[in-house]
Design brief:
Radius of gyration: 15 Å
Distance between the termini: 7 Å
Oligomer: single chain
CATH superfamily: predicted glycosyltransferase like domains
CATH topology: Thrombin, subunit H
Shape: globular
Largest sheet: 6 strands, antiparallel, barrel
Number of helices: 1
Structural class: alpha+beta
Number of domains: 1
CATH architecture: Beta Barrel
Number of strands: 9
Strand content: over 45%
């Protein structure tokens, strides 16, 4: 299930949704490692897709920063390279996955498929957009 969203920027200007993958409201344990830094950031996603995720956190990472991301999907470690594409100070970051091994992409896809099925069977459990 996907949706097309439109956001009004000015009364005369309309911007279409740019996402290529369906997005799932999902709280998944995540570990972020900013390129060039030794300290991991342990957090959770607030939404997740095959193409990226959103992480809510009070201290944000600068847009453009390169990351290594590990997601824990049903106790399986899924690692990928990523970059920060949006920064909302004191709220969170939009993260785009830039490189992911095929087995990790398959695990992520299976997790999202199972979560979508659960959401469809239990109204209000998760929201997919």
């Amino acid at each position: 299930m996907s949706s097309f969203q439109v956001q009004m920027v000015h009364p005369e200007v309309v911007r279409a949704e740019r996402r290529r993958f369906r997005r799932l409201k999902a709280s998944v344990q995540a570990e972020l490692r900013v390129e060039g830094k030794d300290i991991p950031i342990r957090t959770e996603t607030s939404d997740l897709s095959e193409g990226g995720c959103y992480i809510e956190m009070p201290i944000t990472i600068e847009s453009g920063a390169r990351l290594h991301v590990v997601l824990w999907l049903d106790q399986e470690r899924v690692g990928m390279e990523a970059r920060v594409v949006t920064c909302h100070p004191q709220f969170g970051n939009g993260i785009e996955f830039t490189a992911m091994p095929a087995d990790c992409r398959d695990k992520l896809r299976r997790y999202l498929d199972m979560a979508q099925l659960a959401a469809e069977r239990t109204p209000g459990l998760n929201r997919i957009s």
